[in-house]
Design a protein that fits this description.
single chain; mainly alpha; Fumarate Reductase Cytochrome B subunit; 7 helices
Length: 173
Protein backbone atom coordinates (compact mmCIF):
# COMPACT_ATOMS: atom_id res chain seq x y z
CA UNK A 1 0.00 0.00 0.00
CA UNK A 2 1.75 3.11 -1.29
CA UNK A 3 -0.64 5.72 0.07
CA UNK A 4 -2.05 6.22 3.55
CA UNK A 5 -5.42 4.78 4.47
CA UNK A 6 -7.85 5.11 7.37
CA UNK A 7 -6.23 2.03 8.96
CA UNK A 8 -2.51 2.72 8.65
CA UNK A 9 0.16 4.84 7.07
CA UNK A 10 1.33 3.80 3.60
CA UNK A 11 4.85 2.73 2.70
CA UNK A 12 5.89 6.23 1.56
CA UNK A 13 4.90 7.80 4.91
CA UNK A 14 6.54 4.98 6.87
CA UNK A 15 9.82 5.08 4.92
CA UNK A 16 10.05 8.86 5.28
CA UNK A 17 9.20 8.66 9.00
CA UNK A 18 11.82 6.03 9.85
CA UNK A 19 14.51 7.44 7.52
CA UNK A 20 14.07 10.84 9.15
CA UNK A 21 14.04 9.24 12.61
CA UNK A 22 17.40 7.60 11.86
CA UNK A 23 18.92 10.79 10.44
CA UNK A 24 17.60 12.92 13.30
CA UNK A 25 18.97 10.37 15.77
CA UNK A 26 22.38 10.74 14.14
CA UNK A 27 22.02 14.52 14.24
CA UNK A 28 21.25 14.44 17.95
CA UNK A 29 24.63 12.80 18.50
CA UNK A 30 25.97 16.31 17.95
CA UNK A 31 25.16 16.83 21.64
CA UNK A 32 28.24 14.66 22.33
CA UNK A 33 30.31 17.34 20.63
CA UNK A 34 29.91 19.30 23.86
CA UNK A 35 31.95 16.64 25.68
CA UNK A 36 35.69 17.26 25.64
CA UNK A 37 35.26 19.71 22.74
CA UNK A 38 34.32 16.86 20.39
CA UNK A 39 37.59 15.02 20.89
CA UNK A 40 36.12 11.50 21.06
CA UNK A 41 34.88 8.92 18.57
CA UNK A 42 31.39 10.46 18.17
CA UNK A 43 32.79 13.92 17.60
CA UNK A 44 35.40 12.72 15.15
CA UNK A 45 33.30 10.28 13.10
CA UNK A 46 29.69 11.46 13.10
CA UNK A 47 29.79 15.20 13.68
CA UNK A 48 31.56 15.93 10.36
CA UNK A 49 28.42 14.66 8.58
CA UNK A 50 26.16 17.00 10.56
CA UNK A 51 25.79 19.68 7.87
CA UNK A 52 25.28 17.14 5.07
CA UNK A 53 22.70 15.12 6.99
CA UNK A 54 20.97 18.34 8.08
CA UNK A 55 20.72 19.46 4.46
CA UNK A 56 19.34 16.06 3.46
CA UNK A 57 16.83 16.32 6.29
CA UNK A 58 15.67 19.71 5.02
CA UNK A 59 14.83 18.14 1.66
CA UNK A 60 13.11 15.16 3.33
CA UNK A 61 11.11 17.41 5.66
CA UNK A 62 9.81 19.52 2.78
CA UNK A 63 8.93 16.36 0.81
CA UNK A 64 7.26 14.83 3.86
CA UNK A 65 5.19 17.97 4.48
CA UNK A 66 4.08 17.98 0.83
CA UNK A 67 3.31 14.25 1.02
CA UNK A 68 1.38 14.74 4.26
CA UNK A 69 -0.71 17.49 2.71
CA UNK A 70 -1.52 15.23 -0.24
CA UNK A 71 -2.53 12.43 2.16
CA UNK A 72 -4.36 14.49 4.79
CA UNK A 73 -7.81 13.12 3.95
CA UNK A 74 -6.61 9.53 3.92
CA UNK A 75 -4.70 9.44 7.22
CA UNK A 76 -5.67 7.11 10.06
CA UNK A 77 -8.35 8.65 12.20
CA UNK A 78 -7.50 10.17 15.57
CA UNK A 79 -9.40 9.80 18.80
CA UNK A 80 -11.66 12.89 18.73
CA UNK A 81 -10.91 13.60 22.40
CA UNK A 82 -7.19 14.05 21.75
CA UNK A 83 -7.12 15.01 18.04
CA UNK A 84 -6.29 18.69 18.68
CA UNK A 85 -3.43 17.79 21.06
CA UNK A 86 -2.06 15.26 18.57
CA UNK A 87 -2.18 17.83 15.75
CA UNK A 88 -0.53 20.45 17.96
CA UNK A 89 2.23 18.02 18.97
CA UNK A 90 2.89 16.97 15.40
CA UNK A 91 2.77 20.60 14.27
CA UNK A 92 5.45 21.53 16.81
CA UNK A 93 7.57 18.55 15.70
CA UNK A 94 7.33 19.57 12.05
CA UNK A 95 8.07 23.20 12.89
CA UNK A 96 11.11 22.16 14.91
CA UNK A 97 12.33 19.79 12.19
CA UNK A 98 11.96 22.54 9.60
CA UNK A 99 13.63 25.25 11.71
CA UNK A 100 16.67 23.12 12.61
CA UNK A 101 18.21 22.94 9.13
CA UNK A 102 17.14 26.49 8.31
CA UNK A 103 18.92 27.85 11.39
CA UNK A 104 21.85 25.49 10.72
CA UNK A 105 22.31 26.86 7.21
CA UNK A 106 21.96 30.35 8.71
CA UNK A 107 24.92 29.62 11.01
CA UNK A 108 27.06 28.50 8.08
CA UNK A 109 26.19 31.35 5.77
CA UNK A 110 25.86 33.98 8.48
CA UNK A 111 29.37 33.34 9.72
CA UNK A 112 30.81 33.25 6.22
CA UNK A 113 31.68 29.53 6.29
CA UNK A 114 29.91 28.74 3.04
CA UNK A 115 27.92 25.53 2.61
CA UNK A 116 29.37 22.20 1.51
CA UNK A 117 26.99 19.23 1.36
CA UNK A 118 28.32 15.69 0.83
CA UNK A 119 31.57 17.13 -0.52
CA UNK A 120 29.90 19.50 -2.99
CA UNK A 121 30.33 23.20 -2.38
CA UNK A 122 26.90 24.81 -2.75
CA UNK A 123 27.88 28.23 -1.42
CA UNK A 124 31.48 29.45 -1.31
CA UNK A 125 33.02 31.00 1.77
CA UNK A 126 32.12 34.64 1.97
CA UNK A 127 31.59 37.59 4.21
CA UNK A 128 29.54 37.45 7.37
CA UNK A 129 25.82 38.09 7.12
CA UNK A 130 24.83 39.41 10.57
CA UNK A 131 21.07 38.80 10.31
CA UNK A 132 21.67 35.18 9.21
CA UNK A 133 24.17 34.62 12.02
CA UNK A 134 21.60 36.04 14.43
CA UNK A 135 18.94 33.65 13.13
CA UNK A 136 21.49 30.82 13.33
CA UNK A 137 22.01 31.53 17.02
CA UNK A 138 18.60 29.89 17.58
CA UNK A 139 19.93 26.54 16.33
CA UNK A 140 21.25 25.26 19.67
CA UNK A 141 18.24 26.21 21.84
CA UNK A 142 15.91 24.82 19.17
CA UNK A 143 17.85 21.54 19.20
CA UNK A 144 17.11 21.12 22.92
CA UNK A 145 13.43 21.91 22.39
CA UNK A 146 13.22 19.51 19.44
CA UNK A 147 14.94 16.78 21.46
CA UNK A 148 12.30 17.19 24.18
CA UNK A 149 9.51 17.03 21.59
CA UNK A 150 11.03 13.88 20.09
CA UNK A 151 11.29 12.16 23.47
CA UNK A 152 7.69 13.18 24.16
CA UNK A 153 6.65 11.75 20.78
CA UNK A 154 8.41 8.46 21.51
CA UNK A 155 6.92 8.40 25.00
CA UNK A 156 3.40 8.91 23.69
CA UNK A 157 3.85 6.17 21.07
CA UNK A 158 5.00 3.77 23.80
CA UNK A 159 2.15 4.85 26.09
CA UNK A 160 -0.36 4.08 23.36
CA UNK A 161 1.26 0.72 22.64
CA UNK A 162 1.84 -0.59 26.15
CA UNK A 163 -0.79 1.18 28.26
CA UNK A 164 -3.69 1.97 25.94
CA UNK A 165 -2.93 -1.15 23.88
CA UNK A 166 -4.25 0.45 20.71
CA UNK A 167 -2.86 0.34 17.18
CA UNK A 168 -1.27 3.81 17.13
CA UNK A 169 2.31 2.52 16.99
CA UNK A 170 1.43 -0.32 14.63
CA UNK A 171 0.07 2.16 12.09
CA UNK A 172 3.58 3.53 11.56
CA UNK A 173 5.56 0.32 12.12
Amino acid sequence: MLKDSQDRYGIVSRIMHWAMALLIGLQLLKFFDRINDGEHWVGKTLVPTHVSFGSLLLVLIVLRILWGISQRNQRPEQDPASAKLVKAGHGMLYLGMLLMPITGVSIMLGNGYGLTVFGTELVARGTDIPWAASLGSLHSPLSWALALLIFGHIGMALLHHFVHKDDTLKRMA
